[in-house]
Amino acid sequence: MRDHNDVPHIVIERESGGGVGSFLLGAMVGAGLALLFAPKTGEETQEELKEHARKLRVVAEERVREAQRHLEDHFDVAREGVTARYDEVKEAVNAGREAAMEARGDLEDRLERSKSAYRAGVTAAREAAAAEEAED
For a surface tag, which of 9, 26, 32, 56 has the fewest beta carbons within 10 Å of its beta carbon? Predict the structure, then answer.
């Protein structure tokens, strides 16, 4: 004689999880069966459903407020980070601008000294040439 444990059975497994859809479907089927087999009147059941809906709404609103506070906190942190980066970049740009202006001033001074030296050399060469011609 066979024992009920010896009966072959088939197991079907899925690779992915059941997910929220399966949970909600099961919850709705369970709620429907509970309504069918409930030992309460329709009016009592409606009041109970309304009360559960109110509680669910309160819980949902609180979770939304909590999520909103959480997002606002993260937004504030992100805003502070962006502001700090902006200030750093602004300071770097200003420092670069000042360094460029200083470098330009130095370059202009060196260029003017080079021009003066060139002019002095040209003048000295002309005077030397004129002096040689006068001697000849």
Answer: 9
Residue 93 CA to residue 100 CA, distance in Å, equals 10
Task: Examine residue 24 and state whether it is found in any structural domain, yes or no.
Answer: no
**Assigned domain for 7 exists:** no
Structural domain boundaries enclosing 92: 42-135
Q: In 5-134, at which residue ranges do the beta strands (DSSP E only) sit?
A: none
List pLDDT tens digits, range 59-94.
989 999 999 999 999 999 999 999 999 999 999 999
Task: Note whether 45 and 35 are within 8 A (CB).
Answer: yes
Token duo for residue 2: 């066979």
Q: Which of 90, 87, 110, 86 is CA-nearest to residue 98?
A: 90
